[in-house]
Specification:
It contains 12 helices and 14 strands. The strands form 4 sheets. Strands 11-10-9-12-13 form a 5-stranded mixed beta sheet, with helices on both faces. A 4-stranded antiparallel beta sheet has the order 1-2-3-4, covered by helices on one side. Strand 7 and strand 8 form a beta hairpin. The N terminus is likely disordered.
Length: 383
Amino acid sequence: MTAPAFDYRQARGEAIAKDERNVRRVDQNEYRVRSQSGDGEYQVISGELGWLCNCPDAMFRNVKCKHVIAVELSLEIRRRIENAKRLVPLDYQTCLSCGSEEIKRDGMLHNESGDIQRYACKSCGKRFTNNLGFERMHTNPKAITYAMQAYFSGESFRNVQKSLRLQGVNVSHVAIYKWVKKYVALMGDYLEGITPQVSDKWRADEVYLKVRGNLKYLFSMMDDETRFWIAQEVADTKEKHNARGLLAKSRAVAGKKPKWFITDGLGAYHQAWMKEYRNIYNQNEVKTEHIRHITLKGDKNNNRMERLNGEFRDREKVMRGVKKMDSPTIRGYQIFHNYIRPHQALNGETPAERAGIKVEGDDKWFTIIQNAKHAAQKGEEAV
């Protein structure tokens, strides 16, 4: 199937914007875009009706040209950089409650995992420790985050238990499951409050899995550009499933609708698109096109979604099925895919980094857990 002309211009505009040397900013209302066929430049200026270009494609065909698309994408990239969210390890140089630098050491706490430094704030009087997120845990935080990494990298609970035993940490596989359940819930609730800067092209697909031996289907939505796994849900059936929940949740997570919604020919997606994405309720809302006839070649194939499905299928084989519909493994693997696992197709970055969310520190699990617990405590104090 031949791609429409607008898709062609979109692809060329994306190619131009990828090299920052191609788009030169004169001021906030004027940009110069390097010609792809010569040494000259085209002028793109801001007008009452949007961006205008002096290239033949825009002037004589009255269409949005690749140069305008490149400028819009360049501005979007700059906006993502400016709005990037950074999750950093807490350094305990300031009070976790009021932010004051007037803090002091306030003795040591002792438990089975070792000594824990306690601090006190001279400004607000609050006390806190440097094991935020791991309070009352009988195991060293490093052992817990190692277990999380090993499990979501493909090991079973029992194999993780054996690895920890070699490190001198004796815990049961049931305890490791409880760690996963506890911290996936903590991190998931926190991360859902951070809006990823995703593109305007999303893909949806489904993959079968077994829940207590019964066949179920995992429906997922992924951003095409960043590979960010936006939303997921488990369904009893495939053909009769109402996918409106997946589309509504994706819209809530991203804070917008996509311009292109790409799926296979499953009727559930088209019905959900008609009710959730097709209608436009105000002038500022984009119109979403549903591309449902996937071709094997070209930019409309669903290979990227298939790779995501393959990731999860490989993980599920080790587990020999999921034990329940709301298993923490599914939600946890979504966190692992988005925030922890570097992707070769993204030049070693995570989807979250491409979506403007950077998790810093040598142990990203530790950083996210700390920030999640800190946010939860601030929320409790506000209540």
